[in-house]
Please model this.
Amino acid sequence: MAFAVYILASKRNGTLYIGHTDDLHRRVSEHKAHHFPGFTAKYDVTMLVWFEEHDSREAAFTRERQMKSWRRVWKLELIEHSNPDWRDLFADSELTLESAGSPPSRG
Model:
């Protein structure tokens, strides 16, 4: 089973949301459908703009918490590095978890 950390955006350089899941397709589908009331539904944060795979739930959780403490500019740089056009990766059937990649981690 693969675990993922992901970033959703409302639009290019818009509102960002960072989360982690054990089923990226299901979770992003839930965000897009506004399945749960809350931050992503309120601000229409539904574009999957970045994600990375982890071997364990604990690793994904740790990475999510680390990234949530980052400055916004670092998050934007991470997205721009692998997705400079801010495509909605959910709609891109060619992408796999392995292809999302990321530049060196920030502390």
About this structure: The two ends are 26 Å apart (CA to CA). The chain has one domain: 3-100.
